[in-house]
Write a structure and sequence with these properties.
By secondary structure, the chain is of the alpha+beta class. The chain folds into 3 domains: 112 residues, Roll (Ubiquitin-like (UB roll)); 138 residues, Alpha-Beta Plaits; 232 residues, Rossmann fold (3-Layer(aba) Sandwich), CATH 3.40.50. 24% of the residues lie in helices and 20% in strands. A 7-stranded mixed sheet has the order 17-16-22-21-20-18-19, sandwiched between helices. The chain has a 5-stranded mixed sheet with strand order 2-1-7-3-6, sandwiched between helices. A hairpin with a 5-residue loop joins strand 23 and strand 24. It is elongated and about 105 Å long.
Length: 537
């Protein structure tokens, strides 16, 4: 592989790569604002200027202050090159740390900050702002401008999700390129020139496509802010954990940002994975954190309707075991969930084997009922994160849905149900047949139509409260990790299933997460790690 030298270090590069791309792949950050690895090159911020010291040198004419003559005299300086635009060449010797480069970086910083408002204390970007970071790294000088800065519109509503502050904008054009190149919707553009520049909406339009939050995510400063996250939390209080989006079967990799002081998740951000979602997520996916944290089931209950009461300790498990024990085992229907992890589904499938029932069903969300719209960018036609994983846990084909379960109940083939999760195709009215059964045990993290029919509800941890894996539409096994602790008494689904099995007199022999994953991997064969996504916790 060809190489060039950057600051004394040898950097390999592929044919056609720019200096910036090769340095980025090697883990070296050349300061930049407008460049993004997933977008086209704009080369307009000039922060990534480097000095190519090898080859024929180009010089720029300048005037320089001569202390002896007490006057400006003609001189030259090396011509610097944008690293984001310059194609790497074999044997190049490049510096991004020379005195000339440092002066250029400091000058760019000063130019960008001339009219920038000093509102860091109230800016949501504070703590993860490139202007702040690079000021301390590459400028660190007092502001010399004494005149009134140029004022521009503030707090402009761009659409349902985004607010724009033109005074903070450095015109990197990342947001424009996200709309053009990712979403395919030219809804943003620039107007005016120089220090009057600002981003503007297309006439008669709002920023309302399905990737609007990506415009905020790529903004290197505080010009674009999410209306959902705005003024909610300070990023230096937040910790981050690896997650997988539960919005659809694409399985976009995420950063789950949470405040450990309160055990609260505040936002999701895309985590780079070139085999799955590259650098992106859709708006609905980024907002799934709300679905995962709202309408939670936090305590076990027994009974139905007005007679439903909380239950504690071993009581709900004993009640569930008594109800299920009164039914012929092969007439117990077991419902797996396309919303829950491989581990939870595997444990329930093993319980079905121990009970001696082959009546397995799959509960999942329906795209049409949920108003889910697929696209050719990221959004899968399946709005469930783990349909493939649930089928794998069941040992193969799992075509029977909750619709089939209802038919089997009406036909007398199913007299009791153990169901995982809250998601189903039907409403509560359509699930009325379940309320006629004496034994419906729901293991769920959320309220929903399916748990509402239950005679016993057992709470389980959500995806933010447990380690687990999903299998996406392409067969990639992807691990997510626990971000926040669950409420006391609420455990991961597979542990709750094991405890229910124990109450029923069965030992599932689950040695832990790694043991379950080994068994699932053996069932999946060589495809268990397809797509290059790592399944770990």
């Amino acid at each position: 592989m060809s190489t060039f030298t950057l600051n004394g270090r040898e950097i390999p590069f592929e044919a056609g790569e720019t200096i910036m791309q090769a340095a980025w792949r090697a883990g070296i950050e050349i300061p930049h604002y407008c460049w993004h690895p997933g977008l086209s090159v704009a080369a307009n911020c000039r922060m990534c200027l480097v000095h190519i010291e090898s080859g024929r040198q180009m010089a720029m004419p300048i005037v320089k202050w001569d202390e002896k003559k007490k006057a400006y005299v003609p001189d030259t300086k090396p011509k610097l090159t944008p690293a984001c635009q310059q194609t790497a060449g074999e044997g190049m010797v490049i510096s991004s740390e020379s005195d000339e480069v440092k002066r250029a970086q400091a000058s760019v910083q000063e130019l960008l900050l001339l009219n920038h408002p000093v509102d860091c204390p109230i800016c949501d970007q504070a703590g993860e702002c490139k202007l702040q970071d690079y000021y301390y790294e590459h400028q660190s000088t007092a502001k010399r401008k004494l005149t009134e800065p140029v004022h521009k519109p503030k707090g402009v509503r761009f659409g349902p999700t985004i607010v724009y502050d033109a005074e903070r904008c450095i015109m990197c054009t990342r947001c424009i390129r996200v709309c053009d190149e990712l979403a395919g919707d030219h809804v943003l553009d620039m107007r005016e020139r120089g220090n009057r520049n600002e981003i503007t909406l297309a006439q008669g339009r709002e920023l309302d496509h399905r990737y609007t939050l990506m415009t905020e995510h790529v903004c290197p400063v505080g010009a674009l802010t999410s209306r959902d996250f705005r003024f909610k939390a300070r990023v230096w209080f937040l910790k981050s954990q690896e997650g997988v989006c539960s919005g659809c079967a694409t399985g976009c990799n995420t950063h789950v940002d949470f405040d450990p002081r309160y055990g609260k998740v505040y936002r999701l951000r895309p985590r780079d994975n070139m085999a799955v979602n590259k650098f992106w997520m859709c708006d609905d996916g980024m907002m799934t954190y709300r679905r995962q944290t709202e309408d939670r089931v936090l305590a076990a209950t027994v009974g139905r309707g007005d007679a439903r009461v909380p239950a504690f300790g071993d009581e709900p498990f004993a009640r569930a075991a008594a109800q299920l024990g009164a039914v012929t085992p092969n007439k117990i229907g077991v419902v797996l969930s396309a919303q829950h992890s491989n581990e939870d589904n595997y444990a329930l499938a093993q319980l079905a084997k121990k009970l001696g029932t082959t009546k397995l069903y799959l509960a999942k969300l329906d795209a049409e009922r949920e108003g889910w719209v697929a696209d050719a960018i990221l959004r899968s036609a399946d709005p469930n994160p783990n349909t493939a994983g649930a089928r794998l846990a069941a040992g193969g084909a799992l075509d029977e849905t909750t619709e089939d379960l209802l038919q089997d109940i009406l036909g007398g083939e199913v007299e009791a149900v153990i169901a995982l999760g809250a998601a189903s195709l039907e409403t509560l009215a359509e699930l009325e047949a379940l309320t006629k059964l004496d034994a419906v045990v729901s293991l769920t993290s959320h309220v929903g139509a399916l748990p509402a029919t239950a005679s016993v509800v057992l709470p389980v941890a959500s995806v933010f409260e447990t380690h687990g894996t999903f299998v996406n539409a392409k067969g990639a096994h992807q691990g997510f990790r626990r971000a926040v602790a669950s409420q006391p008494g609420v455990e991961p689904g597979w542990k709750t299933v094991a405890k229910l099995a124990e109450a029923l007199g069965h030992d599932l022999g689950l040695g832990g997460l790694q043991d379950i994953r080994s068994k699932l991997a053996a069932a999946a064969g060589a495809g268990a790690t397809a797509g290059g996504a790592e399944a770990r916790a």
